[in-house]
Amino acid sequence: MDVNYVFLLAEPAGFAAGALLLHFRAGILDERRNVTLGLLAVVSAVGAVLAGASPTGWAPLNVLLLAGMGAAAVAVGLVASTRLLLFASVVGAIAGLESAALPLALAASGILVASLLLGSDSFLDAAAAALVTQAALRLTFPEGRGLTAVVAAVMLAPVVIDAFVHAAPRYRRIVTRAALAAGAFTVVGAGVGALAAYSSVEPLRRGLAAVTGVVSPGTGADVDATSSKLVDAGKDFADARRTLEAWWARPAAAVPVVGQHWRVLRAAAVTGDQLASVGRETLDAPALADIRVVNGQVPLDQLAAVSVPVTRLADNLTAGRRRLAAGRSPWLVPQLSDKLDAQLKRVTEIERTTRSVARTMPLLPGLLGKDGPRRYFLAVLSPVELRAGGGFLGNFGEIVADQGRLTLTRFGRPQELDDAGGDQRRLIASPEFVSRYGRFSPEAEWANVNPSPDFPSDAVAIEGLYPQSGGAPIDGVITVDPTALAALLKVVGPVMVPSWPTPITTENALQILLYDQYLEYENRARIDFLGDVAQETWKRLTTELPPPPALLAAMGPPVRTKHMFFWSNRPDEQRLFEDLGAAGHMAPVQGDFVGLVTQNASGNKIDYFLRRALDYKVRVDPDSGRLDATATVTLRNGAPASGLPITLIGNEIIPPIPNGQNRLYLSFYTPWQLVEARLDGAIIALEDATELGRKVYSTGLIVPSMGEAVLEIRLSGRLPGAGDYRLDVYRQTTVAPDELTTTVSVGGRQVTATHQLDSDLTVEIPLDGS
């Protein structure tokens, strides 16, 4: 931290001058001394309460103690040594260099210097004592459990002892009696608190172990067994709650340090008791246990019935999370503090999942055609031939939902769409989409219909083109790829198709669909195979499904890792997909941003062999916000030049290039200005465009067979506004996750991390050195 030494000298000097002026020019204060001191005590009391400290586990008592401390500081200042007060202010200024305590301590120092020059002015000493106390309550250094309290004690204890020694005997007797009473209460409160904690810890441990394993709606556990566990958990939590809330245990809340531990244990007991009760009701609800999709029919009435208990569970989870978060305190012993953080994280995860389900339930009937038929375009994508929007469109389908009945009314290859409508089709999309991707003619070739990394932009183009290609108007778009298909097989079971000799399971689906099929079949047979697998999976999916919890548990990972997208042309439904992380939306720029996108330009499936690595080094000046970054993109092509089918390693481009070479179109998304770009060490020019609120630099390049290409991009810019450094990393859906290395240098610190980029990622680093 850069220290402004002029400020350190000027502020106390200014307050000293002000105090001297007050002494010589404001004689009216002497005439109304008691009123002035009373007002000063009130202001000091209010300031102490606003500091927000929590000396005990009982909020009303905290207010009283803090207010009393602030008011008492004025009385202490009237009799305490001016030099001891000055010592306290200097300690507070040193410890408060990085907090609000600094100006308060400096102001006190200046007033006390003036008081010494005047021969210890008691009114000025009282004002300084109030400021010293405010500074002590706002210390943030040194970091560590209770260390700021130790510093505050070093500041205030000599002052308080000196004031006690010099106080009148009558006041010393009052203080002594109060201290003895407080000490006795503390001993009793600590004793009953320890007894309550000892009696409640074991049932709390049992209850937490049970409820956190079964409450989440994403689990596919047996309903009867889950309900039984929740009944047992509820008994344990109720026992712990009764103990902690017993009349004899209540005094523990008023004891410093002990009170914070009592509060956390009680919060855990109350939260667990409520979650066990509501969770049991939710899982016991017949609508949730009995929901099945049979012969393509979803029971809409049961969906409506389950919405209420799930919403209630989500509300209780939110209340529980807030209750647990309020129990955080620097006074907690490490064992309890760590358990609280772990439990809070778990409850937050369950709350997020449950809240998503609760928000989804009211919209599901509409999505399933309760208010009229809905029609959805189904895009079956494959990342072995990369597109920004999830992969090459290998098959398409049309799903109709009417009164909860799901029907796959059409299924085919994109060539069918290319052949319909002739040359009359036109691209209907945002002006930015048309400007950037119109040159790839998606209106003429459906293989190029999803070139944007922002799936909603691609979906709008699909919505506009499908009716021009022989289809009916659609209400939304759904995409799946082999990873999503493998997840579906986890809940519907293996499928058999006549053209493949063995069952296709969740374990072997990726290998078969991404690679083996291209070795086994030529084009026509492979096309039939893909259609057979997709349609058989759909048949199993709509014949009979397990309850929604199992389906949600299976589909969560492919949605999170961007193997399944949803889009609706109705704003409320689209907002839901955005909130669920299922929309494939490229997030807005909030600080720094990196997005690497490559698109196949070879007309083959060679991206099965492509491996990508991104090394992003950034240096930030925390004072000015200036940023300098270097992104090094390494593309490795593991495809051989021969020995594999042309479908995999051949090239359908003019002029032709040797087999095994990967020709691609690379785009790099960033908020920053390009300084220089080098490909394999040689300076090159990149296309410069804007898209989705950021800059995008692009180029075409070829990665040799069994070789690599290295693109280095240097950037510069300035972070907007104040705040910590934030880097959002966009993940394109690829066969293998990108290898990402980030190195962030801020001032004299450097933070390096490596990631397997299987989903979008956010990295945050404080700029203040913490």
Account of the protein in words:
The protein contains 24 helices and 18 strands. With 770 residues, it is α+β, with helices and mostly antiparallel strands. The strands form three sheets. The chain has a seven-stranded mixed sheet, with no helix packed on it. A six-stranded mixed sheet has the order 12-13-9-6-15-18, with helices on one face. It has a five-stranded mixed sheet with strand order 3-2-1-4-5, sandwiched between helices. It is elongated. About 2% of the residues have low confidence.
Short description:
This protein has 770 residues and is of the alpha+beta class. The chain is elongated.
Strand proportion: 15-25%
Global Rg: 34 Å
Shape: elongated
The helix/strand class is: alpha+beta
Distance between the termini: 11 Å
Helix content: 40-55%
Largest sheet: 7 strands, mixed
The overall pLDDT, averaged over residues, is 84
Please mark out the parts with pLDDT under 50 across 5 or more consecutive residues, or reply none.
25-29, 216-224
The strand line-up of the biggest sheet is 11-10-14-8-7-16-17
**Helical segment count:** 24
What's the total number of strands? 18
